[in-house]
Amino acid sequence: MLTTWRIRAPVLTHMAPRHLPYDNALHPDSHWLPTVIINFDLNDLQAFRAVVDKGSFRGAADAIRISQPALSRRIEKLETALDVKLFERTTRRVSLTMVGRAFLPQVERILDDLDIALMGISNVASTRMGDVTIACVPSTAYYFMPHVISAFHKLYPKIRLRVLDASAGEVCNAVESGEADFGVSFSGSLADEVEFELLFQERYVLACRRDHPLAERASVSWAEAYEHDYITVDKTSGNRFLLDQALRGVRVKKPSICETHHVTTMIGLVEAGLGVAMVPSIAMPGTEHPILLSVPLVEPQVMRNVGLIKRRGRTLPPAALELERLVRELPFRSA
């Protein structure tokens, strides 16, 4: 593909005017501006953005499914065409030069506009390829990700989805580092580089078997629940941090009989008859379960905010935006 850039001569007087692409379509004097023809294609631009996103040539090559030498050739071709150096490369890291940082927003706009246009054409959207990664805590993965994945796959069958089901801290780290495009988790101790947007609130409930003494109760206090054999999450869990903060005034008479890392494991142990567990409501089966039921927990009533987490200042690529849209459109079960 032959790409044509129109460049206005006065742009950045400290460097040759053709060093940076300049979109002059909206400039009132664009009719007199000179045109410079530069040879590179969309594959070269995609390689450039992949290196920026992944922070390494190896990661970028894996992401766009080409060899590392082939990726290096694309970057060299782009730098030669523009007559600039886009990356500073050392044995340990890859970073953008000042010119590369100025070039990046325009590359993102070009690629995103193209992707949006193609995804808006139904018979083309079904052939779009690529990868989208979402990180989420296991309880949310269990609750709504199967519905989201099914809907997304019907729309874009050739785009590969990767789901990182991990603890809240690991979800935050994956979003912050760029390993995941975005995440679904609960608010809590989030990094400054990550922003949170509320989707819904849910309460904590008591998970127990139908034959348990507390199963017939309309509600159970936390103190009463702790009098029975109970299972809890370990100190590395984001849920444990949230509960420790909310239950400072609740007296616990005996320790748990078992600790796990994930809420979904706790529910399996409850079903096996080991005891009760205090869990987020969406972690419970959504339909009538033959063995398990939930009882509202009170004194205090503890709520958890569940939402989208994204790296601050980052614009999601179109495929990830489509996945985010499907998450937003879910009719969340009332908690």
Number of strands: 14
The run of helices and strands is EEHHHEEHHEHHEHEEEHEHEHEEEH
State the end-to-end CA separation. Answer: 53 Å
The helix-and-strand class reads alpha/beta
CATH topology of the largest domain: Arc Repressor Mutant, subunit A
Strand content: 15-25%
CATH superfamily annotation of the largest domain: Winged helix-like DNA-binding domain superfamily/Winged helix DNA-binding domain
CATH class of the largest domain: Mainly Alpha
Total helix count? 12
Radius of gyration: 26 Å
Q: Return the average pLDDT rounded to an integer.
A: 82
Note poorly predicted spans. Answer: 1-36
**CATH architecture heading of the largest domain:** Orthogonal Bundle
Shape: elongated
What kind of sheet is the major sheet?
A: 10 strands, mixed
Counting structural domains, the number is 3
Helix percentage range: 25-40%
Family: Belongs to the LysR transcriptional regulatory family.
Pfam families: HTH_1 (PF00126), LysR_substrate (PF03466)
Keywords: DNA-binding, Transcription, Transcription regulation
Organism: Pseudomonas veronii 1YdBTEX2
